[in-house]
Structure formats: structure tokens, C-alpha cells
Design goal:
Elements: E1 8-14, E2 22-26, E3 32-35, H1 38-58, H2 74-85, E4 97-102, E5 117-119, E6 126-128, E7 134-136, E8 143-145, H3 150-155
Antiparallel strand pairs: 1-2, 1-4, 2-3, 5-6, 7-8
């Protein structure tokens, strides 16, 4: 299993319900953490992401579907970016949100890399890009994948 060095994006912010509590979210893997201080949440994020990536490195390829790239929903990611870039900078805002990056010593496995996985619109599962037909226009730099994976095509699912 090849591992690519890559950083994961995390947002850590104070909760609105309890301003003394911090919560963290990893955008690419959707792993949360909660703590009393910013430093505690950062430590928990490093620990949880490290444990998750170690868990993926230990698994066999037949468990690959269970461990594929599962990002946070796009709307939640957009909301975190909006809070970090705009809302907390307003003069009357009491929001505190910080963006940080986490990288692991072993590297990110291909299953967690969005450039190696694609969502099948038929079965709603993330599959390896090798399971999709690739389309490429002759005079274009754009490459796109079929919306249905080869597993669904073989089973006759549309």
C-alpha cells in the first residue's frame, strides 16, 4: 500500500453552546474532537487521526471499501471556512475558529486521498478510480470518470 505525504485540514473552534469548550473537525476524514482548551483539542486531533491512519495501514485490501475517503459534507465545510474567513473577523463577533494542518509520520494511504477515489452515483460508495471508465477529449486537458463504477455495470445497475 503506497502512502503519499499529505496534510489533513482541521478546524478548531469554540462551541457556541458552551464558550469554555473547544471542538475540532477534520475536513478530509470527518473525525471530531472535543476538549477544554485549544491545545487539548489539537492533541486529540493528532492522536485520533494518527490512530485512524494506523488502523487503515493495518487492514487488508478486502476491507478497503469500509476505509475509503469519507469527507465532511460540503455544506459543513463551507460553513467552517465562512466562519474562519469572515464571521470571526467582524467587529462584534465573539467567534473563535482556527485552521490547522495535521500530517502523519506514515503518510496518508491512497484510500484517504480524494484523487484516488470517486463516488459511484449508483451504489453511493466511494470506489478506487481504477473501477471507473475514464473519458478524455482529444484536444483537452480535462479528464473525467464515468458516474457508475464497473461493479454496478457488471451487476446491471443503472
Amino acid at each position: 500500500m503506497n502512502a503519499t505525504p499529505r496534510q489533513l485540514t482541521c478546524y478548531i473552534k469554540k462551541t457556541q453552546a458552551n464558550p469554555e469548550t473547544w471542538e475540532g473537525f477534520c475536513v478530509e476524514v470527518d473525525i471530531p474532537a472535543i476538549g477544554d482548551t485549544y491545545e487539548e483539542v489539537v492533541g486529540k486531533m493528532h492522536e485520533r487521526l494518527g490512530n485512524y491512519i494506523d488502523f487503515i495501514h493495518e487492514r487488508q485490501p478486502d476491507d478497503e471499501q469500509m476505509l475509503m475517503f469519507r469527507p465532511m459534507p460540503g455544506g459543513q465545510v463551507w460553513k467552517l471556512k465562512f466562519e474562519e474567513r469572515i464571521l470571526q473577523r467582524l467587529p462584534f463577533s465573539s467567534r473563535q475558529i482556527r485552521k490547522t494542518y495535521v500530517s502523519t509520520e506514515k503518510g496518508i494511504p491512497p484510500q484517504l486521498d480524494p484523487t484516488h477515489t470517486e463516488l459511484c452515483f449508483s451504489c453511493r460508495k466511494y470506489r478506487s478510480v481504477t473501477q471507473f471508465e475514464v473519458f478524455h477529449e482529444p484536444n483537452s486537458a480535462y479528464v473525467w470518470y464515468d458516474k457508475t463504477c464497473n461493479f454496478c455495470k457488471d451487476a446491471g445497475v443503472d
